[in-house]
């Protein structure tokens, strides 16, 4: 199968390419001509190793030029790419088990690993029952011609925030349709520059900020996540000449906390066209504090593009494309019942009134395009009108066909060409508003209470940062429950938080509060592994945990 996403390998624009962040604060540049040549030589080596069109090749590589060249080398060889995260949030044994779970499902013909990650990859291969050793990237003496491709472009393994990782099958048609949707929604023009620090193994970083600009041979400034964490001002300085980026809400709030105006003196951000926000529920406070930091340097709130998407829909579903300040609403928690109208208590556009608007507020994620239909259904699968809460269902060319090797999920289902997302949301004034995972909620008196909302409120009441709080919906026989994990040894805040939870969820929900250090476990994309944490606590495997009576 041919694909326009690979055309640049035969017709590279030698005047453009990728600027890769270096550890010393500088940038290293390679043009598309050099990258295409290296990718095709690496493809030759892969073919010599026995890789054929349609095979799955797993990559365990850090974000560097070798990763970029090897990624497109797999495509040039006609194979399917499966990118696996380096060990960022997990210790050695947990990481090996995570990789082994992916390898067991993917059954790759080859596992490619960098020298410093080959030990992890080798252990994971053995645990998954795969023969051989990890393959270190190398190049053949000559460039291989681009081979015919199989049906699948990617295996995108979900991060495992709601269970074991599952490989989403992304066809070439899915990927081409979604990259076109992204470019169209973002207003991507010839010569535009993208800047990103997002990890390449995650759908927003891989498809939105890597594949889409490279396939269009736009200039790309690419940082690693640790570069951003150490120096977020470095990312902002990219927009002296870059126009597009994407990041989750916490990143914008992080910049507002860490970056000082004096670090940006002389910077002109008036050319910044798009700052996409996605990957988690969006609170207006995070956007407003970021905008207030950067407005003196030319940034406009209208550059914000709140969006909704998921791996099972390739990536993007909706994005607010209107040139306007994002719209935020505060629904009445008592009205959040599936199949029932959502009562809006307050509504405003992003501005000074958004400061402090965290718990209970959500930002609109735009209106669906005709080629990506979105509908809301109730518990019985019946479509509901605007203003009624239900499950988000997505169709169109970006809707993936299913999980690889027959894997299944509890919340997300693939039915008759549509993705039943497992996410709860509603339409209001034509925009999609997303509340959160249905699996990450509990029903209280017929309404849904979402753990992300509780986490924001508890962070405010306790004085702890949001990143130090994780709430888990705990199933029980005949009883609803919540477990609160807090990264702290202090428990003076517990009585006030218990009272807050009592008011929010009532007396009939059993609340377990756990304090300690090293409690919070995260997926490869940084999301809390809620169910895994609860199971570890129940099994007595959470060292250092203390349950507060």
Rg from alpha-carbon coordinates: 23 Å
From the spread of the alpha carbons, the general shape counts as: globular
The major sheet is characterized as: 5 strands, antiparallel
Number of helices: 13
Strand percent estimate: 15-25%
* Low-confidence blocks of residues: none
Rounded average pLDDT: 90
Secondary-structure-derived class: alpha/beta
Quote the distance from N terminus to C terminus.
61 Å
Helix content: 25-40%
The counted number of beta strands is 27
Family: Belongs to the ATP-dependent AMP-binding enzyme family.
Domain AMP-dependent synthetase/ligase: 25-404
InterPro entries: AMP-bd_C_sf, AMP-binding_CS, AMP-dep_synth/lig_dom, ANL_N_sf
Protein name: AMP-binding protein
